[in-house]
Write a structure and sequence with these properties.
Strand content: under 5%
Order of helices and strands: HHH
Radius of gyration: 13 Å
Largest sheet: none
Structural class: mainly alpha
Number of strands: 0
């Protein structure tokens, strides 16, 4: 399975489970530090509303960290 197929399957699985796009945390290493066009293409193909790309991406990143973020430490 190539990387693109793997990411697409993961994105579809997350969408079907009602979870945010884990792929939102994968961004360009240099330059704008945002996801590439493929992220938005995949999101559209899965039925996400991407009319405001930056807003969609930022909300997905926030939701990923709310769901999967580091748990609080007990002291």
């Amino acid at each position: 399975m190539d990387l693109l197929t793997y990411l697409a399957q993961g994105a579809e699985d997350e969408r079907l489970a009602g979870r945010p796009a884990l792929t939102s945390i994968g961004t360009h290493k240099y330059g704008d530090k945002e996801p590439g066009a493929g992220f938005y293409d995949m999101a559209r193909s899965l039925g996400h509303d991407v009319r405001e790309p930056y807003v969609f991406w930022a909300s997905q990143v926030q939701d990923v960290f709310k769901l999967y973020g580091r748990p609080s430490r007990s002291t």
